[in-house]
Amino acid sequence: MGGKDGLTPYRGKRHFDRTREPPGTRTSTGEAPAFVVQIHDASTLHFDFRLEADGVLKSWSVPKGPSADPHDKRLAMPSEDHPLEYLAFEGVIPAAGEYGAGTVIVWDRGTYRPLPRKKKGHTLSFGRALDDGHASFRLDGGKLHGGYALTRFRTGERPGEREAWLLVKENDDRAGRRGAPDPRRARSVLSGRTLKQTAAEEAAGHGAA
Asked: How high is the pLDDT of residue 2?
């Protein structure tokens, strides 16, 4: 998951004199761990799913976005850990040589509760559960609610192979038939803006990431 070096991979990919992305100084958001789902119009349009753990945001790129339907098995490709300040990042990453250039909006955010997992008689911490390849949790966001699970199905240890996970909704009282929204029509929970509106406002000098 890239957590061994903290935020070094994240910082190494960015020029903070060009991008307004945060370099990262916070180590906790408070008592309940936080999550965020961002829509990122980069080289490919996708959702970014991030969970607070061990002082950073563990991150996955989810091409089709989280679904409330337990029948949907969403591919989730891990990316580098992000700083906790990214919970509120929204705006345009400049195209001038910047990693991940494109527009970002916060589609959903809130808190989550890790669900206990035992291995060989011991309860694993949430970070250890992720390292072990399976973690379950309950989301309490503005749009996403109830149980979800992340499961690694490919380790990426073979040459030319990338690590890959599945993000799946638990079949609980918050399950439904709703998939992810059309990302180009979806609105930010912070500003109410679409991707197009965010890009236009920033181009006009009115952005506020």
From this structure: 42
